Amino acid sequence: MASPQIVWLRRDLRLADQPALHTAAKAGPVVPVFVLDDERPRGDDDRTYGGAHRWWLHHSLESLATGFGRHNARIVLRKGDSVSVLASLADQLGAGAIHANRHYEPWWREAEEDLRDALPEGCELCLHDGNYLMPPGTATTGSGDPYKIYTPFYRSMLEIMPPRDELPVPPTISQPSDLPESDDLSDWNLLPTSPNWATRMEDFWKVGEDAAHDRLKWWTEHVGEYEDGRNLPSVDQTSQLSPHLHWGEISPVTIWHALKDKRSEGWKTYESELIWRDYAQNIIYQFPDYPRETYRDAIDDNKLWRNPNRGHIIQEELEAWQQGRTGYPIVDAGMRQLWALGWMHNRVRMIAASFLIKHLLIDWRHGERWFWDTLVDGDYGSNATNWQWVAGTGVDSNMFPRIMAPLKQSDKFDAAGYIREWVPELADLSDDEIHDPSDQCRPDDYPEKIISHKEGRERALQAYRDMKDD
Description:
single chain, 470 residues, mainly alpha, Rossmann fold, Serine Threonine Protein Phosphatase 5, Tetratricopeptide repeat, DNA Cyclobutane Dipyrimidine Photolyase, subunit A, domain 3, five-stranded parallel beta sheet, globular
């Protein structure tokens, strides 16, 4: 009889196009294991799951358990250090192998190395590529080095496409007759209770593999509208597949194959964003501390940023940004949407990030950490890459002196309806007034601007000049 095969689940919570599960199911009886590990990610830069992460994870694991249940199989849930838990289970089961899809966050790469050394004799660690279009390091320069700049990376990816073929759900998933004990998911207390701040998330999101495929079916009919619609927050012609991708409820390979025959500009743009997701993993593969270390030596963190830890006024401004009380309606709408849904429209993410970094001159890392804590799709690589791009500090980034004008952006991209939804105290204002309410029409319960656009822009440019002159 074949020995049991453990499948170590992390951000790959699906049955379809799941290389680790696919291989394990052909090799022997399968024991899928998810370990809630709050130890490995803590390290020097605490990357334990934020509240929005935990909310999504609870529902995704529920959905995955249902999926396995259709095959008369179940998941083993454990809490603790992944390496210790998995090595112990491998010994208990007499497992022949642990199968896992590679993850590129530094704590997971370290855990994979440690696990290889900790396994009992006769058990091997088999790593598979399943969460990205191509493994990091596939697209390289002529000299064989990994790319740092997105555009040549993108072109190289297009040249080596297509990605691998999509894998089906295993037709049968057998399991050992005596499975190890499992934690009860409800005992992990992943859901908020007092208070339950996730009520709007519950109404908005459908979580799990089935929901991801339903969303993809919808998106196949609408991706052609993406080129124009993606920048309009009031229309929100976006896929909303990002949390499903982040948690691995659907693979980018599945999405690519579903859309590959489209001929629209919308698909070309969306494909480039799937490739950007791969690019972000290539960046953290090269620079594991990218979410907390400025890449450009020309940026002096101590001279450019106003640090909230150095004064209560700066801290109050950070909190006003977090709470959507800056006096800039498009920024406030985005930050309130983020808090309510664990998600924000992509165009507004850029506007809100630029406002924090340049109008308020607050270090981009404060924004990156807030997004990490509040986004259901908060991704270690993508989040950091996006923030460093906006800040002008990244390996490939916008220049710091290029400062977005949030009020013009709001008007240009017709955000009036979006603002009315998320900043209801402004709902009665006309389209002409709502983007930048004057003192005459601004309601008493809506704050004045923290800083005017002109003053914020000039202060940021002067700070940049002063830093360069030192």
